[in-house]
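Consider the following assembly input.
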Amino acid sequence: MSKVDNESPTPPEVANSQVPERSTRSIEILVAVCFVISVLATVGLAVTYWLGGQPQVEGGLLFATLGGIGVGMVAWGKYLVPQGPYVQERDTIKSEILERQALLESLDRGSKAVGRRPFLGKLMGASIALFGLINLFPFLRSLGPVPKKALTTTPWRKGSAVVGPDGKQVTSSTLEVGGVMTVFPSNDVGGAISQTVLIRVGTANWTTRPGRETWGPLGYLAFSKVCTHAGCPVGLYEELTQQLLCPCHQSLFDVLTGATPVFGPAPRPLPQLPIYFDSNGNMHAQAGYDQPVGPGYWERP
Amino acid sequence: MITQTTDWFDERLGIAKFTRKSLNKIFPDHWSFMLGEIAMYSFVILLFTGVFLTFFFVPSSKLITYHGAYLPDRGHKVSEAFASTLNISFSVRAGLVMRQMHHWAANVFIAAIIVHVCRIFFTGAFRKPREINWFVGTGLLVLAIVNGFLGYSLPDDLISGTGLRIAYSIVLSVPVVGSYLGFFLFGGTFPGNAIIPRFYTLHILIIPGLIIGLLTAHLAIMWHQKHTQFKGKGKTNRNVVGVAMWPAYAFQAGGFFFVTAAVIAALGGLVQINPIWLYGQYVPYRVSYAVQPDWYMGWLDGALRLMPSWEIQAFGHMIPNVFFPAVLLPGITFTLLGAWPMIERKITKDYEEHHLLDNPRDVPWRTSLGVGILAFYVVLFFASSTDVLANSYSLSLNFVLWAFRVLLFVVPPLAAFVAYKVASETGAVSTTGRRKRILIISRSSEGEFSTTETALRAPMHEEVIEELPEEIRYHAIKDGHEELASAIAVGAPSGGSTISTNDVDLGPLQSGGTGVYQIPRTPRGGTGDPRGRISRRDKRE
């Protein structure tokens, strides 16, 4: 059974005793140890560097070097110097009313002197504005060409030979059923806009939509590989579901119905490239894409 | 020697008064005031490591055959940007540590800014007179995010190239001028050869220059207006209570720079970030699984994923799908963020100056609004990993996407409601945030229980807040009380020895026309205090 002494208040000396008296000696030792660790680590860092460097060792030693200085300084500033708390009055931020009036008068004196010649003022304003406006041109127009038809067309043309990333002509036997590859027109191998994904869904001619009866000879279907959402390459083909997936934002396109978007943010189907095989079995484009490929933009028809 | 130096400068620049005031400047102490410091120190580290990287990085997308130290890429065609980044990582001594520190520092920089913004928001530190600094800070946040994106786009690896492709599509989606903007920025169709050198100039010169300018303004305004402080004993709207700049704050803040640098160095040396050699050179028709941007772009990526497949087509023009999540959403976000001080003023009709901070629980409506908005962006952030989540937990992508679309509108109001309840309930309890008294329960011999409260432990700093001795002396001399000033001078040279003030009658002192009076104060206790505490300035109305 304990009796609680609730009476004796803490003596003021104890209440007022400040941090520095508590254990300065141990803090001094701590600070000294921190700085010594830092020096040793710096020496180690120099040796590591001299020997050719090693990222993990460098990181660890840098940690010790910088951390030693940091902890030492903070401990010194926190436990070995007066902490206060001190008080400081805030100055009034706004100026005295007389100051403000004097400012307005000074402004006014100048404005009146200038304002006497309004025509000159307008002329000056106009000349500076014109100069600024004209100077926009080098900063905009020189940076690049105007779009013109660059966004609406691709290098695909009527009769373009269809080639793989290595520049080899695609033939009727290039892909097995279920196979997929990226193809280009022979004049733009590796092109970012002309990239086209070629899939073989079967061995018979495949019609994705009415009006595209001749576009899928021998089960080969070609779609623009530029996602209609944000332009990423629609790189993943799932044979089981016959779907193309864009790995950037997970838009799914149904291959058999003409790459119509079935899931995700893509708003439009991937444009289909009409292809045919010539008498030698080489693949060509019947025509270019019938619409702009890739993401939308203001002028898109 | 020091006297000579200060005299030399003072005769030429007249620095004595400003420097004295600066050394004696008082900084309120609270852990949350260090968040902005972390951001600033990370920026300094970004400058140091960034300058190092510029000596080795080649900002060019020209393709060359790689002959460097990384064996898997030998003999392959890679861009000079990619090759030089490999070179920094594998051949330049300490290059990988510098590169990884740079990347980590960027992530820490933006994280610290965002947490700092939250602190300012939830404590109401943006209120008059600090609106200008809120605007400047919003600008700094935008610049930091933009420069982060520019920076990780430079190495020309597969992930950054894919990010650039998305960025091009986003620029393209701006109504009316989008396609022109895209062409002028990229120098033509995507990808072109101009973007890496251009981003390089923006990344190392223009945006850092703007950041340095705004940061200087940010700090100068903060210095001029003095720091805010939390409510507490002796703290009023008209004073600042805390540690002095010299030496306590200077040592703590200076040391904290090194601590921040140490943590970033450890991350840079020990935790791999952006291993571009695993991603490979950017090739426009290649793409990999799990294409995620750096974390601070995650909310935009998530918004792009969650957006339904809508697109507006009318009058021969189109507003593309990506415009809504990637142009409109950030536009609204940063406009509302920047305009918040004005919006709140419209709501509260509060035109007063505020130097005392709100505790978040004191203003439940603001706290809950902030938590709700934050929750919205957190959901968007997690939505940027739909593919990884679906894969890791064997869920259908469809399910994960729809779950996030629902969560996006369910979580924020829920979070706001919980925050409101927590804030208002804890705010209603008068003892919230105070140390609890220990109760001792005793049982008498009759079996009766009784509780007794123990005494509170005496706080470390009982309310003894005084001006700095030098300031008191300075004011005394200015106000014509040389005898007082000399008494202080004898007693307390620079803090340390005890002085006796019993025989000095201070009398009411008036300090220079501010309507602030110094009142005498008897020293406490018998032993007195190590530092010369004589008077305390108090406000008499």
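Chain A has three domains: 19-79, 98-143, 154-301. Ask yourself how this observation constrains the way the partners meet.
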